[in-house]
Amino acid sequence: MSFSSIQKCAAALRYLGYGITFDASDKYLKVSERTAVGCVDWFSACVYEVFHKEYLRKPTHRDIERLYSAHEERHGFPGMLGSLDCTHVAWEKCPKAWRCQFTRGDIGEPTIILEAVASQDLWIWHTDKAPDMTFTVNGHAYKYSYYLGDGIYPNYSTLMKGYSVPRSEKAKLFTKKQESARKDIERAFGVIKQT
């Protein structure tokens, strides 16, 4: 009469894992397109319900204070929320009609670009808007936090980029520290790509 929870989970995982269209396996799974969409929606809602309080949330004021203190202690950057970067993740189940659209010449296979902010503990944060918390450096209060980025990003007040050609000793030291701190996001991407 109806599908069990296990059948719905299996259908949702098959659609999400293999990247197939909702009507592609109606003969195999005996699931209509409408039911398949409902299974994926139901599965997504269940994942959200189980994990949103800890993993799918915006950082609280307490979290931000912890990030401030950890980044200042570890890297020497007060007011830093994390490192921002992007990476290409192979899209093995890319539909044939889209392959050319998602393939770059230097990579040679379809990819999806993942852009994220990660802290030193590999936590990938979703902040939506800049948090309204101040931090102080040398007695001067600043209203908005910032992220460490590299040269691919535009010049925004919330992005701190290293010098492309550091000339002075001070600029060289800053760029070295900034590059060291940006290893957090590279490490997070490394973990994601291994799983």
Order of helices and strands: HHHHEEEEEEEHH
Shape from CA axes?
elongated
First-residue to last-residue Cα separation: 37 Å
Strand order of the largest sheet: 3-2-1-6-7
What is the total number of structural domains? 2
- Give the oligomeric state: single chain
Rg: 22 Å
Can you count the beta strands? 7
Strand percentage: 15-25%
- Sketch the major β-sheet: 5 strands, mixed
How much helix, percentage-wise, in residues?
25-40%
The structural class is: alpha/beta
Low-confidence stretches: none
What's the helix count?
A: 6
Average pLDDT, to the nearest integer? 84
Q: Your description of this structure?
A:
This protein has 195 residues and is an alpha/beta fold. The protein folds into 2 domains: 5-51; 61-194, no CATH class. The chain is 39% helix and 17% strand. The chain has helices at residues 5-18, 26-29, 33-51, 61-75, 169-181, 183-194, and strands at 80-90, 111-118, 124-125, 135-137, 140-142, 146-149, 159-161. The strands form 2 sheets. It has a 5-stranded mixed sheet with strand order 3-2-1-6-7. A two-stranded antiparallel ribbon has the order 4-5. The longest helix has 19 residues, at 33-51. It starts with a helix and ends with a helix.
Architecture blueprint of SSEs:
Layout: H1 5-18, H2 26-29, H3 33-51, H4 61-75, E1 80-90, E2 111-118, E3 124-125, E4 135-137, E5 140-142, E6 146-149, E7 159-161, H5 169-181, H6 183-194
Parallel strand pairs: 1-6, 6-7
Antiparallel strand pairs: 1-2, 2-3, 4-5
